[in-house]
Structure formats: structure tokens, C-alpha cells
Input
Amino acid sequence: MVAAVTPVRLEWRLRRNEHTLPPLLKIAKSALDVVRAETPRIAALRLEREACLVTRSAEASCMAFDWARRTAWSVHGQVTFQQLVDLVAEVAGSGQRAIFGATVIEPIGPAPSRIVLAIRRHVTPYNEVELAALARLARAVAPRFEELVPARDPAGPFI
Output
């Protein structure tokens, strides 16, 4: 009796769970893209873009805080909404992120920081894994922002 052997093809398909951390290589590439920036404005714009990609966010805004004048700046100019300025000061001063529903404000660097990043989604709040990815990205780019952003710039650090 002769037995026929048929080939068997095994396939593993990994479903990307919403709670899986983006690969560390992706976070490292994102950080590298930010730290290669020559100016604070370019670094801020790249950080906004990369943070959106890593966390699947709809929008992001990198803001610098001038401690001497108690003003906040984004790449679009001075932040005039006083409640946002106060929140940026609180997060930068404490070094602790703030979470409001589907919005996160993350300090870039240890307290007292001069830079924070606000990211936002339309509905779904961030999970712990996404927050960890954001924290890793923030830690990786913090030294470059310390080099690029002057401690006090009357014209705004990103302009």
C-alpha cells in the first residue's frame, strides 16, 4: 500500500490588537527623525507628526513654556487661551502628564520642563500601551529639545 503525502502550509496571522505597543524600532525611528531637526520649529513639527503616527492620534501640538513670562508658544505663535497656558505650566512644572478623556498632555523631559506635547483623538481614550509609547518617544527627544529651545526667547521659541 502506498500513502500519498500532501504538502501542508502553515500560516500564522497575527492580528494587531489595539493594546499592542508599536514596535520599539518604529518609536526609535520616529525619535531619530525628530532629533535630526536643525531648528526648534522643525523639531516641533516632526514631533507632532510622529506622535500622531505612534499613537494613532488625530492631531498634536508641541508647546514651549517661558517660565519667566508665564507664556506658552506653539509653532503657530503665542497661546492666548489662559486655561491652556495654565495647564501647560502645570504639566511642565510637575513633569506629570495630564489626561482629559481623549486628550493627553505629555511633558517632554524632566520637571521643570519647557516643552509639552498635547495629542488628541476624536473619541477613543488612550490606553496604557499607547501612553507608554508616547512616554518613550518623549524621553527620547527631550535632550534635543533642551539643546534647540532657548530658555528665554521673547519672539517665541518656534518662530
